[in-house]
Design a protein that fits this description.
Layout (H helix, E strand, L loop, with lengths): L12 H8 L6 H7 L1 H12 L5 H12 L8 H12 L2 H10 L1
Length: 96
């Protein structure tokens, strides 16, 4: 049984609409894409309107905790993964 994005902790209707535009409709989709890939796709689609807090919120949603409860090591690991492919975000920042 899958959980709708808007019913996941940290993610509400606005994030659900944004994720739906990149074909992520429920928790299974988010887990299959992975939060880093979802973040890259959101940045590509929405540019500056997506901050690093979206990445933390999605990771925490998958874990079932509040995004503020993510430890520093987890946040740094997520940032490292995002930075491994910075060309994606450069393109999106030029657009938006």
């Amino acid at each position: 049984m899958s959980t709708r994005i808007e019913d996941m902790r940290n993610l509400g209707p606005a994030m659900a609409r944004m994720l739906a535009e990149i074909d992520i409709l429920d928790d299974k989709d988010l887990r299959n894409f992975g939060v880093v890939e979802a973040y890259h796709r959101l940045k590509f689609r929405f540019g500056r309107h997506v901050t690093i807090l979206a990445l933390y919120a999605m990771e925490a949603a998958v874990r079932g905790c509040d995004w503020r409860a993510l430890d520093t090591e987890t946040k740094e690991n997520l940032l490292r993964q995002v930075r491994q492919n910075p060309a994606r975000d450069k393109f999106s920042s030029r657009r938006g």
